[in-house]
Amino acid sequence: MRDLRSLLSEERLAQWLPEQRWFASKTRDVAEIRLADLLDLCDDPSTAIGLVEVTFQAGTHELYQLVLGAQGDGVAMDALTSQQHAAVIARRLTEQAVCASDVGTVNFFWELSETPADPPSVRPIGFEQSNSTVVLDDRYALKAFRRLEPGKNPELEMLRFLSARAYENIATLAGWYELRGDMLSTTLGIAQEYVADGRDGWELALDELGSDPERFLGRLQELGGVIGHMHALLGSDPTDPDFAPEPSTTEGMSLLTATIDEDIERIFLRLPDDLRAVDAIRGRGEEIRDRLQMMSHAGAGGRLIRHHGDLHLGQTLRTPDRWVILDFEGEPARPLTERRRKRSPLRDVAGMLRSFAYVASASDLQRGNPVPDDWEDRARQAFLDGYLSRVETNLLPPGDTAIASVLGIYELEKAVYELRYELDNRPDWVKIPVAGIERILGEEID
Description:
By secondary structure, the chain is an alpha+beta fold. It has helices at residues 2-7, 10-16, 83-95, 154-164, 201-211, 213-234, 250-269, 285-298, 336-339, 346-365, 375-390, 400-425, 431-442, and strands at residues 30-40, 47-56, 61-71, 74-76, 98-101, 104-110, 122-124, 132-136, 140-144, 147-148, 173-180, 186-193, 199-200, 246-247, 303-304, 316-318, 323-325.
């Protein structure tokens, strides 16, 4: 462990880390990046988990996980992609090891009777998101969570809960590993079955929108039923305090709308003067906030449950016989405590409906296949028909008007979040959330 620390160049680390796709704070001013701790993996000197602290000029900080590996005269800072070093993680998982270090123990768990080979074949999954995933033996997907926060990761909690209730539309949880310490306890990573015959839902949508838009509408109705069933299960256990449904109160609705209201005020103060894509909503912040208040008065009731938190087509796979739902971490930019918070299940529905707007635009922008003008409306209806046929109605506000109002609140929350993201990362896509906000402003409220 001392050798790894001595071989690591903190200057190189400080240059490398902010360039990674999963680094969450690219727009913030960094004051310092340092290796805070090394977690021993049971006396294997070649591999360790590095806890890297990033301090910002404002005085706040973030903690990131790296899998570090000895490599020649240096250190590989992304050693998870190496067969030698990923094999150490896989071996500890199947051994269900407990590895002690100065800051606590790293505890490994394995749930299945079958295990990866030793050593397993290892390959990256092909794209980087807010975390990093490699495929072991083309049978297991090993995900390392990059930005760490105290507490249980929602993905592990959700997978364990749904697995215990035989929900078939997830990739089976194989194992996980976590840090337990006096100063920090956190989930470090999970392993799931690798769904080799699954097609990414977003890519499938783009393909079929170019060849057979009607066919995909039928798939969306089926997907709606899958999500409705998932929510029914998530709201089914009153004895588990982490998952027991809670009543939706007026105070809770007021808190939600106040938070969205603040987001609207903040984002509308910094709309770029030279970006024409935002002209349709420029200067309409007060109007949007007034619409939010109107919807909050019309929508009430139902139950609050644990939910996916970042549901869209890109979080799904389609196999020959089923939909598979992925990535239950919630929106990575939000704090872990917020991602674990119970909300109306309609928040997930809103996320998926917003995804239809994105895929319709992407079909035109990326593939040159404009969709029929009414496709998004029909996609929304198909998904909602499937959803309402499977969800437990007591989880939803009573009546179509209340359902539409709460759904509108969450769509507005999502569209404002999208607007902030696109302004920071993809200005060419800003028109999509702008159109979503315009849509909400144009809808009637009974």
